[in-house]
Every structure is written in C-alpha cells, then in structure tokens.
Amino acid sequence: MNERRGQRPHRPRQAPAVASLMNALEGKPLPVCGNGLNVRDWLYVDDHTRALLLIVEKGRVGETYTVGGAERRNIDVVRAICAVMNRLHPPGRPHARLITFVYDRPGHDWRCVIDASKIRNELGWRPCENFETGVARTVERYLENRSWWEAILSERYKGDRLGLAVGLGGSAALDPGCDSLTGCNAYSEQSTARGLRTLDGAGRC
C-alpha cells in the first residue's frame, strides 16, 4: 500500500486531506493520529500513471510490478503541507502551529511502504516529481480549485475522523507527553507546474 497525491483524486479517498486543507485555510487544528511517526510511501499521481503506461507498453506478461515513491512519516507530510501553505497562503502562518495530535485509530498500520526496485531496474522507471514538488503541486491545485473540493465537503463528508473505537472521539487531543512539534511520547512504536512532463522511450522524465 502506498499513498497517492495530486489532482482530482477519488472523492471518498481524498476527503480527509481536503478537510485538512480547509482547516489550514480557516485556522483550525490539523489532526495527526498518534505520535505522527507512522510511515507511508508517497508518490505523485502523474508518476503513478506514467508507471502504469510503461508497464502496459514494456512490461513482461505475467509479471508483477510494484510502484512506489518516497517514504515519509505522517508528521513530516503534514509539516511539508504547512510549509507550502506558508508560502502560498501567508495569512495564518506558521501553519504548523495548528498541528494537533489526536488518538490513533485501532489497528493503525505502523509502516506501509513499497519496494519499487523491480520497475526501476527492469523498465527504467523513475518518478519525475520528488516528495516536495509533488506536495507543492497538490496544494497549488487545491488552492486554485476551491469550488471543486468545497463541493465535496458540502455533500456528505464533514471532516470527521473515521474508524475510531467508541469512546475515543474524533477530536480528543493527547495530553500526556504530547508536543505539537516533536510528537507524543505517550505512544510507543507498537501502538500506533501543471500537466505531465514528457518521458523518453524508457519511461524516464
């Protein structure tokens, strides 16, 4: 499993991210589950699309290719978004002050990443966007198309956290050992610019 970011994602999947963006715009808390040290693999959506096309065109029949990008902790992802918001939406900065640690959901995976060495070595695929440029392009897209994602929040998703055990609550902040900049000691590891760039025939940027 890895995470995709970019323009026009599927609405149910991207709604929490959109809600976080609106929170930043309105000066509301930016919730981070647990201590924020859970690790995910992040890839810009255009790079994923290029990989799929390359697999169809040059991959070996019957083979499996996994596509991944950069490993980042959840807290680092939120901080990266805040940094871009500081630059593109100065009112309310520093946006990192809005980071709020909340109770983790039960069974939250500690680390979900992808080994993309096969598609890199065999087909020569490389992502055109690194983590930082992908985040920047994603935030820019949302800021330039507010009418599109505001409709998402007005339809059915109101920004509530999903998947919590009964009694924990969606907005309860962690009190003991919690620091909004460095994480929460109360949690152990176990608890947890537009358009496609052109590629050459080998799938490189």
Helix content: 25-40%
Low-confidence stretches are 165-199
Oligomer: single chain
Instruction: Assign the CATH topology.
Output: Rossmann fold
Q: How many separate domains make up the residues? A: 1
* Mean pLDDT, all residues: 76
Q: Under the CATH scheme, which architecture would be assigned?
A: 3-Layer(aba) Sandwich
Largest sheet at a glance? 4 strands, mixed
Q: How much strand content do the residues show?
A: 5-15%
What do we call the CATH homologous superfamily? NAD(P)-binding Rossmann-like Domain
Number of helices: 6
CATH class category name: Alpha Beta
Radius of gyration based on Cα positions: 18 Å
**How many β-strands, per DSSP?**
8
Q: What distance lies between the first and last C-alpha atoms, to the nearest angstrom?
A: 24 Å
Give the SSE string: EHEEHEHEEHHHEE
Net shape: globular
Describe what is shown at a glance.
The chain has 205 residues and is α/β, with parallel strands linked by helices.
How is the secondary structure organized here?
Blueprint: E1 3-5, H1 11-26, E2 30-33, E3 39-44, H2 45-58, E4 70-73, H3 74-88, E5 99-102, E6 111-112, H4 117-123, H5 131-144, H6 146-155, E7 178-179, E8 183-184
Parallel strand pairs: 1-3, 2-5, 3-6
Antiparallel strand pairs: 3-4, 7-8
What are the salient characteristics of this protein?
8 strands, alpha/beta, 6 helices, Rossmann fold, globular, four-stranded mixed sheet, 205 residues, two-stranded parallel ribbon
Please, could you describe this protein's structure?
- The protein has 205 residues and is an alpha/beta fold.
- The chain has one domain: 3-Layer(aba) Sandwich (Rossmann fold), CATH 3.40.50.720.
- It is 37% helix and 13% strand.
- It is built from 6 helices and 8 strands.
- The longest helix has 16 residues.
- The radius of gyration is 18 Å and the shape is globular.
- About 17% of the residues have low confidence.
